[in-house]
Design goal:
Blueprint lengths: L1 H56 L4 H16 L3 H22 L3 H5 L1 H36 L3 H8 L12 H4 L7
């Protein structure tokens, strides 16, 4: 009888440890996602200033400004990592077109406000890359934990599901926005 009680206690303690480990991993993934969102928010805040600065020099390039603004709004509204990734890809493309327009205006390229915004955007892109690597590392650890024995037995019963990587196979988004002139 005592051996049965010891086995039950060991199983209960193991189950609690596995459950707590799964919760900790899920919380690390959520924290890493919030880091990405902080950097993306910073990027979203920079874009209107950048567009307004370029507008001052290139007033007749309205189509580019409209596309950047629409891409920013779409990216901000994307609810899931997968949708956000697709929207961020589109936003990166439109920012590239904005910088292509800026290359046609030498006075703009020398503007201190524009140069500051370029530097801030480059810094933000670097931080997004770092946050993305951190998030994907946590997702890898979490997904490994819920898919390996014995935690996979508890994960399925307790509703732990695999998380999506914030990664892509699109070459365009793998390169940071080039803001050098």
């Amino acid at each position: 009888m005592i051996y049965l009680l010891i086995v039950v206690v060991v199983l209960v303690v193991a189950g609690i440890a596995i459950y707590n480990g799964l919760v900790q991993s899920r919380n690390r993934v959520d924290e890493a996602w919030s880091d990405i969102e902080v950097q993306l928010k910073r990027r979203y805040d920079l874009i209107p200033n950048l567009v307004n600065t370029v507008k001052g020099y290139a007033k007749h390039e309205e189509g580019v400004f409209t596309k950047v603004t629409a891409a920013r709004a779409t990216a901000m509204a994307a609810p899931t990592p997968g949708q956000k990734l697709a929207a961020e890809n589109q936003l990166s493309q439109t920012i590239r077109s904005l910088f292509a327009v800026a290359e046609n205006y030498p006075e703009l390229k020398a503007n201190q406000n524009f140069l500051q915004l370029q530097g801030d955007l480059t810094d933000t892109e670097d931080k997004i890359q770092a946050a993305r690597r951190f998030y994907n590392g946590n997702v890898r650890d979490y997904n490994t934990k819920i898919q390996t024995f014995p935690s996979n037995l508890f994960a399925g019963m307790l509703g732990f599901t695999a998380k999506t990587f914030f990664d892509d196979d699109n070459k365009a988004i793998q390169q940071p926005v080039n803001v050098q002139f």
